[in-house]
Amino acid sequence: MHLIRFLTYQCFRLAVVVLGVAMLNFLLIHSAPGDPAMVLAGESGAADPKFLEQLRRDFGLDQPLYMQLLHYLGNIARFDLGYSYRQNLPVLALIADRLPATLFLTVPAFLISLGLGIYWGRHAAGRRGWRLGAFTAVTAVFNAAPVFWMALILVMVFSYWHGWFPAFGIRTPGATQSLAGQAADIARHAVLPIVTMSLFYLAVYARLMRSSMIEAMDLDFVRTARAKGASRQRIVRRHVAPNAILPVVAMAGMQAGQLIGGSVVIETVFAWPGIGRLAFDSLLQRDYPVLMGILLVSSVVVIVINVLTDLVVGYLDPRIEIVT
Fold first, then answer.
1. Is residue 202 part of a domain?
2. Which of 147, 189, 154, 168 is nearest to 271 (CA)?
3. Does residue 150 sit in helix, strand or coil?
4. Comparing C-alpha atoms, which of 286, 290, 293 is closest to residue 36?
């Protein structure tokens, strides 16, 4: 009963948030400088006033702003995200075409950074001396280094110097390969982007896991288990780690939805044809419908992941009651 009420509340909240995000995205993007009709006219080599007027009329840009907003919200209610000025394709089709490439980067990067971060932070909690110093230094570098700088360093070392992995793109141009060969080629191209995206979040989860482990070591039930003569490994495995992992899972849930937004830099540096690259190109081209569609889809993903995170945390710790 609590779960049904929780999911009903979350669906209502999702609808309200989508409405608010759609209105905010529309107003912010349309307040930005630049005229998409001028961009389209410039690309076609014609800037005649009649041609500009025809373009604005064809795409509904000649209507008042509030009419454009109402039309946009009505389309969203019908699951229609609009039509791309530049690509001459439905926005939903463009996003659906680019989303798998982004997920191919973000999902492995998230799982790798979360798994290695928990493992590394757990073992670093009991380290002292030079091992603790090395942990602190490495995680500080990963956490502070700009993503684009880290990407360029990896490209220089592993692509330019050693030639182990391709530097840019999603596949080798003009290569004729079997299905297995194409999959292996895409995987080789994805290694450097995935590693780059993983390093920052790996440092965040490792530092948080270590802090949570140290804090859990001082809890009363851990002292009781230690007084009963339980071994350190059993205390860590049965009592400390299950409690220390909860803040890490909660943090990971909040950051998982940000991976799509954070992929803009990664996909631009590595020329990866995903959602982030599409958003960057749409911004330069003043392709408002595509940009608004990407922002809206990203917002929905963030909300859904937050709901799943609440369910996972409630499952890991039954003491946490799901409430609306």
1. yes
2. 168
3. helix
4. 286
Least confident of 13-17, 39-43, 286-290, 299-303: 39-43
pLDDT (average), residues 251-264: 73
If one counts the domains in the chain, the total is 1
Q: Which helix (H) or strand (E) is 211 found in, with range? A: helix 179-216
Q: Is residue 266 part of a domain?
A: yes
Q: In which domain, by residue range, is 296 found?
A: 91-316
- Whether 21 is covered by a domain: the verdict is no
Residue showing tokens 């809890």 = 219
- 286 Ramachandran zone, left/alpha/beta (phi>0; psi -120 to 50): left
Residue 281, SS3? helix
Q: With contact defined as beta carbons under 8 Å apart, do 238 and 221 qualify?
A: no
Q: Summarize pLDDT for 1-49 with one digit per residue, the tens.
A: 566 776 777 778 778 877 888 888 777 766 766 666 665 655 555 556 6
Residue 67 within any structural domain of the chain? no
